[in-house]
UniProtKB/TrEMBL annotation:
InterPro entries referenced in this protein's UniProt entry, alphabetically: HATPase_C_sf (IPR036890), HATPase_dom (IPR003594), His_kinase_dom (IPR005467), HisK_dim/P_dom (IPR003661), HisK_dim/P_sf (IPR036097), Sig_transdc_His_kin-like_C (IPR004358)
Transmembrane segments: 21-38, 44-62, 74-96, 102-120, 127-148, 154-172
SUPFAM superfamilies with a match to the protein in the record: ATPase domain of HSP90 chaperone/DNA topoisomerase II/histidine kinase, Homodimeric domain of signal transducing histidine kinase
EC number per UniProt: 2.7.13.3
Protein's UniProt name: histidine kinase
Domain (Histidine kinase) ranges: 207-429
Species this protein is from: Pseudosulfitobacter pseudonitzschiae
Catalytic activity: ATP + protein L-histidine = ADP + protein N-phospho-L-histidine
Coiled-coil features, chain-numbered ranges: none
Keywords for the protein's UniProt record, in alphabetical order: ATP-binding, Kinase, Membrane, Nucleotide-binding, Phosphoprotein, Transferase, Transmembrane, Transmembrane helix, Two-component regulatory system
Keyword Aminoacyl-tRNA synthetase part of the UniProt annotation: no
GO MF assignments: ATP binding; phosphorelay sensor kinase activity
Top-level taxon: Bacteria
Length: 441
């Protein structure tokens, strides 16, 4: 078990739904005020103070842990949650034990809310499930001890004890069953994810095998032709074709290394027009005559902090995707432009880029577009709409990985008239990221 991952799970479980937590807090505050007014006991206002204090301690502890968190710190976090639970239950337990029918009914309702909250929480930690059951059982035992003395007959006392023991028993059974179902669902999801991963690996292997087979066929064929050729010009053509196939095979390997983050990254202050010019030269030889390719560089030198070769790889992937989206021909525009984000901007992968100045490398095609149903999936590894064996399915996943590596992001805009994919990278000046209050170079 990873203590930090478990602590993170506890934080998300308790504080991810802010509205629900605020409703609970407001309810307890209102309940404290009404209890103090009805029972004429200002001390009832301590309920909200104790509850907020316990939650604050729990929240601060969870957020102060790092990836080096230990099992001891996890146990402290779990015990703090049990303290939070008891800080809520103490007032309802006191109310149930009072002679006032109104207080008893309200207290019973609040206690029931606490039980339902624990079941809804879907706790999977065995330590916490046992702890929650013990807290509920001990709290009910204390209340039962006080109430049982108010019964004059043995049958009445026995009825109270048996009914409350049954409630505790059914609650414990519900907690264990909920834990069992939650773990089973999680296991099923993991199995499905593993099956998808294996299928994706098979697709990846098919794409790589297809690419390498094509390149090896070209290399082998041209080397065989060399044996029968005497004309130096023809031999040069064969060698050039073999070298191009070798370069293409190396590019496939490089894509895999980039995606696996195994290729070395050399961060330099890079003129945004430099990779754009390289892409223009490299891409022209891969365009059909039916496609008009245009390159639109920036009018001035503007800089990003990045690895030139990886930016070229990313933009080339976009160019090849755009080319494949226009089998009947069209227009392909490759451009770079300065972009000022006054506010944080959503990008692919459910992330947001902070406000600031960015350079946007954009590839626009006039193809059939990407349907809204699959736009969210196109950056997933191995996802592809191409036939089996055509490509590795890593194109946009690599683009997304490279953009994130350089603190940028990817945006996709598509309709029936075409698709524009943009790689946004922070603009720099003298090695520093240009913020909103900075002047452009």
């Amino acid at each position: 078990m990873n203590p930090y991952a478990e602590i993170t799970r506890l934080r998300v479980l308790e504080y991810s739904e802010l509205t629900e937590w605020l409703v609970r807090l407001l309810g307890i505050a209102l309940g404290s005020a009404l209890l103090a007014a009805y029972a004429h006991q200002p001390v009832a206002l301590l309920w909200i103070a104790v509850f907020v204090g316990a939650h604050l301690s729990y929240y601060l502890f969870l957020n102060s842990r790092t990836e080096t968190a230990t099992l001891r710190e996890l146990r402290i976090a779990q015990l703090l949650f049990l303290v939070v639970l008891e800080s809520f239950l103490c007032a309802p337990a006191w109310m149930v034990s009072q002679e006032s029918r109104v207080l008893s009914l309200v207290g019973a309702g609040l206690f029931g809310c606490g039980l339902m909250y624990l079941i809804r929480r879907n706790e999977v930690s065995k330590f916490l499930v046992i702890g929650e059951i013990l807290v509920i059982a001990l709290t009910m035992a204390v209340v039962a001890f006080k109430l049982v003395q108010e019964f004059d007959t043995v049958s009445g006392r026995l009825g109270l004890v048996v009914s409350w023991m049954a409630l505790i028993g059914y609650f414990a059974q519900s907690m264990w069953q909920t834990r069992k179902l939650t773990l089973a669902e999680k296991s099923a999801k993991n199995d499905a994810a593993q099956a998808h991963k294996l299928a994706a690996i098979g697709q990846l292997a098919g794409g790589i095998a297809h690419d390498f087979n094509n390149n090896l066929t070209i290399i082998s064929g041209n080397l065989e032709l060399l044996e029968d050729m005497d004309d130096p010009q023809e031999r040069a053509i064969c060698l050039a074709a073999a070298q191009q196939a070798t370069a293409q095979a190396a590019a496939t390997v490089n894509e895999l290394l980039i995606f696996a983050r195994k290729t070395p990254t050399r961060l330099v202050k890079l003129d945004a027009n430099t990779p754009l010019a390289d892409v223009g030269v490299l891409a022209r030889g891969h365009m059909s005559e039916k496609i008009t390719m245009r390159v639109h560089p920036l009018p001035d030198e503007v800089y990003v902090l990045a690895d030139k070769h990886q930016i070229v790889t990313a933009v080339l992937n976009l160019v090849f995707n755009a080319r494949d989206a226009m089998p009947d021909g069209g227009t392909l525009d490759i451009s770079a432009r300065m972009l000022n984000l006054a506010h944080s901007e959503p990008v692919a992968g459910e992330r947001k880029l902070p406000a600031g100045h960015y350079i946007s490398f954009e590839v626009r095609d006039t193809g059939h577009g990407i349907s809204p149903e699959i736009q969210r999936w196109v950056i997933e590894p191995f996802f592809t709409t191409k036939p089996t064996g055509k490509g590795t399915g890593l194109g946009l996943a690599i683009v997304h990985s490279i953009a994130e590596r350089f603190n940028g992001g990817v945006q996709i805009a598509s309709d029936t008239t075409g698709t524009t994919v943009s790689i946004l990278l922070p603009q720099i000046d003298n090695g520093q990221v240009v913020g909103l209050d900075s002047d452009r170079p």
